[in-house]
Amino acid sequence: xxxxxxxxxxxxSRKSTPATKDDLPSALDLRDTFNxxxxxxxxxxxxxxxxxxxxxxxxxxxxxxxxxKKKAEIIINPVIIKHSQEMIDSTEGCMSxxxxxxxxxxxxxxxxxxxxxxxxxxxxxxxxQALVVQHEMDHFAGKLI
Length: 145
Ligand SMILES: [Zn+2]
Fold this sequence. Notes:
Elements: H1 9-12, H2 24-40, E1 50-52, E2 62-66, E3 72-83, E4 88-94, E5 97-105, E6 108-114, E7 120-126, H3 127-140
Antiparallel strand pairs: 1-2, 2-3, 3-6, 4-5, 6-7
């Protein structure tokens, strides 16, 4: 079921803890929320490319991002195990905040995580997907752009 997006900075500064299988319903809520936002957003003015569970008030390390086919992919307990040496400027928006900010990000990251079946996976994310994963992982740390 889709949830309301939290915009309160104090609440968003709260840190997340690792998710367990008991948190899978929250992962599905997060995916529903992502899909709901993009269905509402028919004019594509503020397309949602990723969401962190913090943003629906669930303080667990769960995120969704738009995959290559623009479908919502659930990433649980991600850990960056490798990244590019250089960082690039990334101008980003956030569904919880107005406007955009430019931050430094790695254009390539290799991540270990579990999927929505709690199966362990390793994946290399590049470009927009790499930036989105880092943005959402900042949310886990209570950090906003
Ligand atoms: Zn955000």
